[in-house]
Specification:
The protein is of the alpha+beta class. The protein has helices at about 1-25, 40-60, 60-70, 80-95, 130-135, 135-150, 155-185, 195-235, 240-245, 255-265, 280-290, and strands at about 30, 35, 70, 105, 115-120, 120-130. It is elongated and about 70 Å long. The relative contact order is 0.11.
C-alpha cells in the first residue's frame, strides 16, 4: 500500500506544481475574452496529467527508499545468511519471471513488502523486518513472488498510464466547469475571474477524489493478478494462501469455508471503493479457485 500512496501523492504534488508553473509562465492561455479554446485546453490537460504521472513513476524508487528507510543489500557482500537467502530467492524468482534482477532491500516496520520502479529490468523489491520475523521462509518467498509478479506484469507502468488518463480528465473537466461557473453564475464577460479560479481548485479536489476510485479499482485487480503470479512462480498456491492468512491474522484451518461468505462483505462500505488492496479473505478465495500450471 505504501508504494501506491507515495505514487498518488507524488503525482498530485507534481501535477499541482506543474499546473501553477505553466499558469505563471502564461502557457495555459486557453481561455480568453472570446471564449475557451478546447483544443489548447486538451493539450494542456494531457501535458499536465501525464507529466505528473511519469515524473512520479521515475521518482518511485528513490522516493520509496527515502520514505521507508530501506537499506539495499549489496549483492556482492550480503551481511549474513538472511540477506544472502533474500538475494538468492528474489533473483531466482526474477529469473523465472523473465525480468532483470531487482535491487533487494530491507526496512524496519510492521509486516509488509513492496516492489517499485519505472522499468522491469531496473526495479526494487523491499521487505520489512516485521515480515521477515513473523513468517516462514516459504511464506516469505511467496510474498517476494507476489512482488516480483508486480514487476513482471508491468503494474507500475500501467498504473502510470491510468493515472495520466484520469489526471487529464480532472484537469480538463475542472477548467470547463470553472469557465461555465465564471460565465453563467458570476456573469464575468471579460477573461477569467475569481469564480473560475475557485471553481477549478474545488473541482480538481472533487474530481481527483472520484478519479482515485478508478485508480483504486485497478490497484485491487492487480493484487489478484500478483497473487496468481506468485502461485505460478512458486508452483503452488498454498504458500501465498498461508502468507495472506498470516498477514490477516487468520487461522489456516479456517481457510476452506469462511472466505466466500465473509470476503468482500467483511470490508464493505464506502471505504472499500478507495482501498488499494482487496480484503485478505477474497484474495485467498480467488487463489483457491485458480489452477496452477
Amino acid at each position: 500500500m505504501k508504494r501506491i500512496f507515495l505514487f498518488i501523492i507524488t503525482n498530485l504534488a507534481v501535477m499541482v506544481v506543474l499546473s501553477a508553473t505553466l499558469r505563471i509562465l502564461g502557457v495555459d492561455r486557453m481561455i480568453t475574452a472570446q471564449g475557451i479554446n478546447i483544443q489548447a485546453l486538451l493539450i494542456f490537460s494531457v501535458v499536465v496529467g501525464f507529466t505528473g504521472a511519469i515524473i512520479s513513476l521515475l521518482m518511485s524508487k528513490p522516493m520509496a527508499k527515502w520514505s521507508t528507510g530501506a537499506q539495499v543489500i549489496d549483492p556482492n557482500a550480503p551481511r549474513g545468511a538472511r540477506e544472502a537467502w533474500l538475494l538468492d530467492t528474489v533473483h531466482q524468482l526474477a529469473d523465472r519471471a523473465g525480468i532483470g534482477r531487482p535491487e533487494v532491500a530491507i526496512y524496519e516496520g510492521a509486516p509488509n513488502a513492496f516492489a517499485t520502479g519505472a522499468f522491469k529490468n531496473d526495479s526494487l523489491v523491499a521487505v520489512s523486518t516485521g515480515l521477515l520475523d513473523s513468517m516462514t521462509e516459504e511464506e516469505i518467498a511467496a510474498v517476494l513472488g507476489h512482488e516480483v509478479a508486480h514487476v513482471a506484469n508491468g503494474d507500475m507502468i500501467t498504473l502510470t498510464l491510468i493515472q495520466g488518463v484520469v489526471n487529464t480528465f480532472v484537469v480538463f473537466l475542472a477548467r470547463l466547469v470553472g469557465y461555465f461557473i465564471d460565465r453563467v453564475v458570476f456573469k464575468n464577460e471579460r477573461g477569467i475571474g475569481i469564480g473560475y479560479y475557485v471553481t477549478v481548485i474545488v473541482c480538481e479536489i472533487v474530481f481527483g477524489i472520484l478519479a482515485s476510485i478508478i485508480v483504486a479499482w485497478f490497484s485491487r485487480q492487480r493484487e489478484y493478478r500478483a497473487d496468481a503470479g506468485s502461485a505460478q512462480l512458486m508452483g503452488s498456491r498454498e504458500p501465498m494462501m498461508r502468507a495472506l492468512a498470516r498477514l490477516g491474522g487468520l487461522e489456516a484451518g479456517e481457510l476452506p469455508k469462511s472466505f466466500e461468505a465473509s470476503g468482500i462483505a467483511g470490508k464493505g462500505g464506502l471505504a472499500a471503493i478507495f482501498a488499494s488492496h482487496p480484503p485478505i479473505q477474497s484474495r485467498i478465495a480467488a487463489l483457491q479457485q485458480m489452477r496452477v500450471a
